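[Solved] Which block belongs to which protein?

Original post:
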Amino acid sequence: MIRKRRLPAGSPKALVLVVAIIAATSIFPAVLLAEEPLVTNIFDSEDIINVFRDISAQTGVNILVEPSVQGWVTLELYDVPLEKALEMIVAPFGYAFVKVGDYYMVGMPDAKNPAFPLFTRTEVVRLKYAKAENASKMLSDFFKPYVKTGPEENILVITGPENVISRVMADVEKIDKAPPQVLLEALVVEVSSDTGKSLGADWRYEHKWGEPDTSVPGSGFVDFISGMWGMKYSVAGGLQAVMASMKTLIDSGNAEIHATPRVATLDGESAEIFLGRDRYFAISATTSEGTTTSTRLETIRTGISLKFTPRISETGEIMVKIEPEVSDAVEGSSGLPIVNRRKVATTVRVRDGETIVIGGLNLKSQYESKTKVPVLGDLPILGIFFSSTKNVSTETEVLIFITPTIIPSE
């Protein structure tokens, strides 16, 4: 029997209108139609409690409704399976239903609701690539109360109604993708300060796409860290082309390659390369009474440090945050070490496989040079008259060439 009711005069006007005409025979299998009761009814601004009462009477299935459930329903149903009809009724209000034995219960899937466990289930999702904490932060604010994280196991624990679990799992699947990787190749070259200034003058150019390039071997355009030069430079062929162009300087002794390190890192993650040594200085301390003196070794790391953080853009370009540092330590007049540090921090944008150049990082060193007359300089006491000792200071410039390359996904 089809019944049609209207909202009594003076009742609230807030309505949820859902009009659905479903041809059940064309959508649901015949087996399902035989097992699940069908609902046919028309509700016009009907109290939701009366709606469930009418459906229960028509299907012969008990439907228990929590006291918090309220609202008005406008809906047309024609041969709709029972659970589909319940889903259409509760969805606009955020309610949920669950089958318990031979009856259904309808209520709000709120954690404060004593019946919350009846309307929900728990699903554990183990993430392969993304961090659980980061993935949970990316979810919609609506779903966050249903999700807990297990950082140590890198899992998400989802507790909620079926529709919430399905949606969260679908969103997590989109988030948990293998991040791309970037290979960072570095070439560290030490040249004399005069050679560095000469290179700075020779390489000060800017080439634009579509224009002939005859000034230096290379092509393209890349923003580049100036240091003290203020250049823009790009070399086709990466570090191999750079090494070929500097072969003359290396052969003549005006340049020395310190290292060619390579390191791979995930998109957005930092990587660090250190080329140097740990130096130890003896530090003496005397108590205020002047009776006890203690000595400890202080470690100071000096050399060349490179820190990279690449991020791949949607266009395939690579944004690289680069933080190089050159440091050296000498013993001061008081016996305490003096550490000199030169740092540059910047972010540049390059195309895949292009080379970034960092210059203007000076490296100073001091050493003792001793010369003597053969044989005579080795004589006890008299040898000092046939030998000389002097302190020599040298200043060189460190050039750093960095080539980021996107590693293809398998």
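(Second protein starts here: sequence line, then its structure tokens.)
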Amino acid sequence: MELKRKIESEFLPFVAKATRFLGNEIHSVQKDPGEGTLRLVLGYAGSYDSGIIHPEYDALYSLWNGEKSVWAERIYAYSPSDEEVSREHGVPAFSLESKTPVNQFPLIIFYLPNVLSILEVLTILDLSSISHYRSERNQTHSLIVGCGPGITAAECLTDFFDILLPGDAITGNCRLWQFLKTRDWKLPEKESLFHELLSIPGVYLPGLYKEEYSSYGELLVIKPNSASVPTRIEMFPEEELERMTVNIAPLVPLGSVNSRNYFPGDWRLGSESESVKPLHRLQPISSPSLASFFRDTLKILRMAGSMGVDQLISFNQVVLANSWLYFKKHSLLGGKTIRL
């Protein structure tokens, strides 16, 4: 209660958009954390604007909260001005739903939308008074998990995370969710938990491996610490991903958000002056930049000779079909050369 009062009096009045820290968006989850409830925080290592409309992050939030004995709360990366207010007034990083300090959660899962998102992860850890380095955290510290597109080069991030879930984030979290939801897990069991997690495909535990370097500092090999640790991390079967279903209740912001950071590169949901209004998940499909994006995508698909492109009646169907995966499957993997 003391932290809540401090947030209300010394943090919210000084940040640019206080509604982003209230945790009362449509479909946000509030639970009574009874005895035996596993509490965790899902950190989005990016801005609130991009995270609140990110479909995969929505899916993770719905997945974890789908179990009655699990309560997953949220935190997004702070803007520079919000971070300055937090440090100046001594307000630690906190979860949006219950206003609990992040360092009091036994499990912290970070979703990294890109490689540079690790900087946001380190900032949140610093604001939470949690050491950046795995080697400096002990049994009393939170378990730090990383997932998402940003951990494609997982070995660059092993110093910071206890667990990495390379590959599809939803599948990895689903396996972890199925494993943890039935356990009365406490922090002192962290080491035994690691060895139990070895049986789950796609889970990388950096602390159970050691690196060997040459005299020039070049990485030579990564070896397991014991014979029980696998030498290679097996990925999740694609068939399992295709069979999996997650019931998503998408988060809807109560304040306006800027959508310009949603698509990487030059593609955006709209021009920089456009914003996503409350109760509208996406910009109208007539948005010039979005329409141009999918028009060019269809053009490339036709040049590659992909089958069934002309059967895509509207841009909405392209969105639902996930045009990039469609392009990769039918063009890049089809063995055909595209000249632009």
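Accepted answer:
You had them paired correctly. Confirming on the second one: The chain has eleven helices and nine strands.
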